[in-house]
């Protein structure tokens, strides 16, 4: 079940709230968060504030779902796949698993089974299977005699298999429902599963929309082995790299060492449009995984921004990704006392399209000149775009603050690769001290 905020063009997005089963308000974001980036709507709540009516499958997200209804059965039940019969594993894997709640709601609602009571209380067991899962998703719940229950299974994706996918493909999804004193039923529908590097970040239908821009923060992974290599290279280039960054100069020195490590590896900017869909309803983007970027030594603007943000998060420097039409660049908080709501104008920005650009190196001296050029170009980009970061310009303009995303429960995709399913995997800062990859 997708929950989203409504938009008041004069005052920005309203607070997005859902009611838990105990009646308490569950707020995933607040009005102040809009100063940093686009607020992320809750995607795993018990009951929405507002619901959009069902339309055709092409309408996708926003609670718009493909209802695959089969023939008459002892219990009336339906399967809904959001968005519109398509499964984006990155949406599942980007969120820390929710605890089990009454009604079997441990998943995020992208696969939802709705069951209606038939006058007799029954115990339900739902099992969902599709290729690419490590194990079937199983949910048990009790259904009241006249109740309707929504079961949201948590899909246990095999991340290593997803890494090998190169394009979306159709496949069957099988759901079996057992209800006490009734024969088991099995239904099968077709779904289209997208590869791990396919990020769905915005959906719009008329005046209704849902913003999933925080998914980009999931590709920022400070615990990736590639980050280990970059940190080691930066240490070799800067003897003081492990020293705590006490001021803006220290942070800039560390950023320069990271940049030099990328240049030394031979990483170069790669042209090409990574957009897989650019509206008018669905917006999705390919974000290459860190290992692929490092191995192939090429990165488009978003790939380079995600890579640099991963290293900055690893060494404790708050980073963010700036999205403008057809482009992305990376920034970081220049001062230790700058929090997520600080003026981004006080930050530093890097234009990642200058990675591997030989012109600065030829004219003035290697990676340091290249870094200075990237910094100047990033600042110019920000100044040109800064006034357009109001919400009526989304999804074309957005600032994805990685720290704020972590506080919302957005975790690195790689956190699922160590078998802990989103637990607080410990990573090491450059100084060698462990810290959580995402907050509790």
Describe this structure in words.
- With 440 residues, the protein is an alpha+beta fold.
- The chain has ten helices and 27 strands.
- Strands 7-15-14-9-11 form a five-stranded mixed β-sheet, with no helix packed on it. It has a four-stranded antiparallel β-sheet with strand order 5-6-8-12, with no helix packed on it. A four-stranded antiparallel β-sheet has the order 17-16-20-19, with no helix packed on it.
- Helix 4 (225-237) crosses helix 5 (248-265), helix 5 crosses helix 9 (366-385) and helix 8 (358-364) packs across helix 9.
- The longest helix is centred in the C-terminal third of the chain and has 20 residues, at 366-385.
- The model is unreliable at 1-73 and 419-440 (pLDDT under 50).
In short:
This protein has 10 helices and 27 strands.
Structural class: alpha+beta
Largest sheet: 5 strands, mixed
Distance between the termini: 24 Å
Q: Give the proportion of residues in helices.
A: 10-25%
């Amino acid at each position: 079940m997708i929950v989203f905020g409504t938009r008041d063009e004069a005052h920005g997005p309203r607070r997005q709230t859902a009611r838990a089963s105990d009646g308490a308000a569950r707020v995933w974001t607040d009005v102040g968060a809009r100063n940093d980036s686009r607020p992320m709507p809750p995607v795993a709540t018990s009951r929405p504030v507002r619901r959009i009516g069902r339309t055709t499958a092409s309408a996708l997200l926003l609670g718009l779902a493909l209802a695959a209804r089969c023939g008459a059965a002892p219990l009336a039940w339906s399967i809904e796949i959001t968005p519109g019969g398509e499964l984006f594993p990155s949406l599942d894997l980007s969120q820390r698993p929710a605890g089990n709640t009454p009604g079997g709601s441990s998943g995020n609602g992208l696969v939802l089974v709705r069951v209606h009571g038939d006058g007799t209380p029954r115990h339900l067991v739902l099992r969902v299977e599709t290729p690419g899962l490590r194990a079937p998703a199983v949910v048990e719940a009790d259904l009241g005699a006249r109740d309707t229950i929504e079961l949201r299974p948590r899909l246990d994706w095999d991340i290593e298999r997803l890494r090998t996918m190169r394009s979306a493909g159709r496949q069957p999804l099988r759901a079996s429902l057992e209800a006490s004193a009734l024969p088991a039923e099995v239904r099968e529908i077709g779904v289209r599963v997208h590869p791990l590097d396919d990020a769905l970040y915005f959906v719009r239908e008329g005046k209704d929309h849902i913003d999933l821009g925080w998914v980009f923060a999931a590709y920022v992974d400070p615990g990736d082995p590639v980050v280990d290599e970059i940190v080691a290279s930066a240490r070799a280039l800067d003897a003081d790299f492990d020293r705590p960054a006490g001021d803006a100069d220290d942070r800039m020195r560390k950023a320069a060492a990271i940049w030099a490590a990328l240049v030394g590896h031979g990483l170069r900017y790669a042209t090409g449009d990574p957009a897989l869909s650019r509206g008018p309803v669905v917006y999705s983007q390919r974000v290459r995984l860190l290992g692929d970027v490092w191995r192939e030594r090429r990165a488009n603007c978003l790939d380079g921004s995600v890579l640099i943000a991963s290293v900055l998060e690893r060494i404790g420097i708050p980073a963010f990704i700036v999205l403008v039409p057809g482009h992305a660049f990376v920034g970081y908080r220049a001062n230790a006392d700058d929090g997520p709501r600080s003026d981004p104008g006080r930050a530093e920005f890097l234009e990642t399209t200058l990675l591997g650009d030989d012109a600065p190196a030829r004219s003035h001296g290697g990676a340091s000149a290249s870094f200075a050029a990237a910094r100047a170009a990033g600042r110019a980009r920000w100044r040109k775009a800064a006034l357009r970061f109001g919400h009526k310009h989304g999804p074309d303009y957005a600032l994805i603050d990685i720290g704020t995303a972590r506080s919302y429960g957005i975790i690195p995709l790689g956190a699922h690769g160590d078998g802990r399913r989103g637990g607080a995997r410990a990573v090491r800062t450059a100084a060698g001290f462990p810290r959580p990859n995402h907050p509790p």
